[in-house]
Amino acid sequence: MQCLLLGKDSIEYGKVLQSDIDDCISMAVSVGADRHSPSLMFKGDSTFLNEDAALAIKQEQHLLMAVADSHFGYWASHAILEGLAKQQRRIDSPAVLFTVLQDMCGTQYDIRENSETTLLVLCMNMDSGQGFGVSFGDSSAVILNSDGYIPLNSKNDHYVTLNRFDSLTAAQADIFEFTVCREDLLVMFTDGVDECHYGHPKTSVQADHIASLYRNNHHCHDFVRALAELALRGVDGNPGGQDNIAIAAAKLC
Asked: How much is the pTM?
């Protein structure tokens, strides 16, 4: 089972495109809510202003989730997640993921495209809750539970493209491991959430806002919808919805 949400298919301001694989996996994308956002100056194609994308693939008890956020055109994020959706190998280690990404560089490159993208991939065994993540750029992976908001990855300033093998190497990535328990919610999102007030992360959605949402929304679908809508509204009277949004969440069921 899999679901791929591409930003180019979600370009209506103020709306959220959401899809679930089952009760345990949900994801959403949105172009945002502000038609005059300062982020528009960095879009590469005025026809498709949503450059984010999200992917979830469940093969028996193996789960892969990914979010990506392009700059200067949607091609990079869409090409990488479309490539991951098509590949047949089970990605059960960072080494396999890097091999798959490198192979995609040899088959899906397009030298006419100059967009680059953040990329965050999480892989987890749905029986044991053990998993790993690989992160390029400024998307976030977190665990939410009764202890609150637990960050999993460190953001960096490396962006990737299928046009350059050297952009998709372990040396450029933050690689991490995690274990999810039954009460936990595993969540990933692009910076359209924690920088929903574009260029102002301190007046955007914060960890305590997200932890508060979890206390009232333990179900994956409800949480993803609530987080997307919060990012579109903004927090504490500050602007929101000023960037594209991609969110994915999963829990053990």
From this structure: 0.94
